[in-house]
Amino acid sequence: MTQLPLSQIWVYPVKSMVGATVDECSVSELGLVGDRVWAVRDLENGGIRGAKKFGGLMKLSASFVKGSDDVSISLPSGRVVRSDDSDVHTAISEAIGVPVQLEHLRPATDLDHFRRGAPSSDDMMEELRNVFGRDIDEPLPDFSVFPPEVMEFESPPGTYYDCWPLMIMSTSALRSMQQALPDSQIDIRRFRPSLVIDTGDQTGHPEFSWAGKTARIGDCEIEFQSACPRCVMVTREVGDDLPADRAILRHIVRDLNQNVGVYAKVTKPGTIKTTDQLTFLS
User: Fold this and answer.
1) 208-255 pLDDT, tens per residue?
2) Residues 6+ apart with CB under 8 A from 229
């Protein structure tokens, strides 16, 4: 059986904010435990929103307050606020320039919580091009790879991830993009993977070939879905050290069939560690 080392585990406590790597993580059927358990709600148009709409979210970073489910959020100004601070909603709103409210993940039965908010444009094609960062002459993704519920809901009810519980990338993919775009900064923070797999000296994007396969990591088992279509988020400014860069998405659309990384779902919950191997089962 083919084995590849697990290189990094990323957890993002707040949807679209910068997260951090961990050495070990429990995995449920809904993905990494602790991942995207907070998000912001658009107070003007409704709906839970991420950096597809509010790019400024990617300039903020979040971590859990030790021993609690609250989060500590670092703002671009250098201020740190907590989810239980009385002015946390105002502080985040001022930091990203739009009125929002920080909200904790709700149960899947609370369907209204997850329904999409109003679009920013009455022209649906314009709305989709803005969300996916496509120029007018570029194709939109194949929406059939997305779960059908995301047509009605901002995320699958009971979760704050976009489509599937896990998004997995290879070290080869990061290296390949840097080689293709020597003037760009190909930083892992742009792509927000759940897991990074060390694919050694393999070239290109080997994870594209994993779609449809199953694998074990630690005592967790996963099933790879489809390659991950990319949106405007990969072009966003993340901080002073990582500026906005539309060239990255142009390369992804033009040369990578719009994809970077591969989605996966969890078929057997368990625990994973960065010392584990990804072992293909089929």
Assistant:
1) 999 999 999 999 999 999 999 999 999 999 988 999 999 999 999 999
2) 132, 141, 142, 145, 258, 259
Averages of pLDDT over each 10 residues, the chain, 282 residues: 93 98 97 98 97 97 95 97 98 98 97 95 94 95 89 94 96 98 97 98 97 97 97 95 97 98 98 98 94
Please answer whether residues 61 and 74 qualify as being in contact, where contact means their C-beta atoms are separated by less than 8 angstroms: yes
Residue that the structure tokens 């002015």 belong to: 87
User: CA 63, CA 46: separation in Å to the nearest integer?
Assistant: 25
Give CA–CA dist 197/195, Å, rounded: 6
CB atoms within 10 A of CB 29: 10
Q: Are 13 and 20 in contact (CB under 8 A)?
A: no
Would you say the C-alpha torsion 235, 12, 103, 268 has a positive or negative sign? positive
CB of 168 within 8 A of CB of 207?
yes
**E strand map for 24-82:** 24-28, 31-32, 38-42, 48-49, 61-64, 71-74, 80-82
* Residues in contact with 175: Cβ distance below 8 Å, sequence separation at least 6, in sequence order: none
Cβ atoms within 10 Å of 272's Cβ, excluding its own = 24
CA dihedral over 223, 263, 141, 129, signed as positive or negative: positive
3-class secondary structure, 235: helix
Backbone Cα Rg of the chain:
18
Q: Which domains does the chain have, with CATH numbers?
A: 3-280 (2.40.33.20)
Return the residue matching tokens 């599937």.
164
3-state secondary structure of 191: helix
Torsion of CA 147, 251, 130, 101, to 10 degrees: 70
Provide the 8-state DSSP code for 121. -
